[in-house]
Amino acid sequence: MDAPLLVNGEGAKLLAEDGDYVPARNFKTVKDVFWIETKRMWVIALPIVFNIWCQFGVNSVTSIFVGHLGDIELSAISLINSVIGSFAFGFMLGMGSATETLCGQAFGAGQVNMLGIYMQRSWVILSVTSILLLPIYIFAAPILKLLGQQTDIADLAGNFSILVIPQFLSLAFNFPTQKFLQSQSKVNVIAWIGLVALVLHVGMLWLLVYTLELGLTGAALAFDITSWGITAAQLIYVVVWCKDGWTGLSWLAFKDIWAFVRLSLASAVMLCLEVWYMMSVIVLAGHLDNAVVAVDSLSICMNINGWEGMIFIGINAAVSVRVSNELGLGRPRAAKYSVYVTTFQSLLLGVFFMGIVLTTRNYYALIFTNSLVLQEAVSKLGVLLAITMVLNSVQPVISGVAVGGGWQALVAYINVGCYYLFGLPLGFLLGYKANLGVEGLWGGMICGILLQTFLLMFILYKTNWKKEVEQTNARMLVWGGQQIEVDKIAASA
Question: Which parts form a coiled-coil structure per UniProt (predicted)?
Answer without folding.
Answer: none
